[in-house]
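Fold this sequence, please.
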Amino acid sequence: MPALTLDRARSIVGRFTGAPVVVLGDVMLDQFVVGRVHRISPEAPVPVVEYDRDEYRAGGAANVAHNVHALGGRVTLVGVIGRDTSAARLSSDLSNLGLRTDGLVVDPSRPTTTKVRIVAQRNQQVARIDYEVDTEVGPEVERALAERVELLAGDARVIVVSDYMKGAVTRGLMAQVVAAAHARGAVVLVDPKIPHIGYYAGSSVVTPNHVEAETATHRRIRNDGDAADAARVFRERAACDAVLITRGEHGMCLLEGDRALHFPTVAREVADVTGAGDTVIGTLALALAAGGALSDAAGLANHAAGLVVGKFGAATVSPEELLAAFAS
């Protein structure tokens, strides 16, 4: 297939507005404690951070949903939160962004997954503190998640599963989601964690990063040929239809059918790779929901990733930024 042209990109992005996508997975709250470092502690060889401010952002599956929304999509977010102050802040922040929160299931037995990053000058991370329980949710919560997907999916033909292994994505839930998607003619995209690779059977596209692909296939990826071979092995192991390997500075490799396509990176500068995978799968999902071919959707996702890594933290891109980057 010919490379994605600017006219075709404009046509797909022009249909982003209102295209329906469901995002299911591990929602998180990202907190940044921002300060300055001028000295090392006399008590231990650690930097002393002089506090300046706190920043909060939607993370994990919530960041995927935010990416879809920022690009103009109509997104339904389904996930698990606790009954705590982090849940209240996350719900409030999502509402302020214009995202619905009625797909969030409360599990009072676990905290809302929260990542607290201590950040100094030039966005340098000093430390990270994770508040989480990563055991899988129980049958009652699993059932509630499946019901939320069925109730809220509406006319969505794309379901994204954002698996961070924080408990929301279970084998049983994946089986129900894949079966429901097949019944309604929807596609299922998965941002995976390798210990769960057996959960994803029947999915349409799985998007491992370079390290995950190497780990799952037990082979090194040094070039495009290695990436294509790894994608074939990964597809067999995951029992999915297609594989998109994100390779950082080496771009992406898409295996669809018997054909492997390679997309060189378009990133001009890298400030922070946090959340880049969320942007990739969010853009991929919305492009498919807008009627784009998988190869074209991957091309747009590659350009979106090149933009978002130039920003700090879990960030998003707009349709205008995406088209401008594609045209440049």
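The mean pLDDT is 93. The domain at 6-28+59-112+133-327 is CATH 3.40.1190.20 (UDP-N-acetylmuramoyl-L-alanine:D-glutamate ligase).
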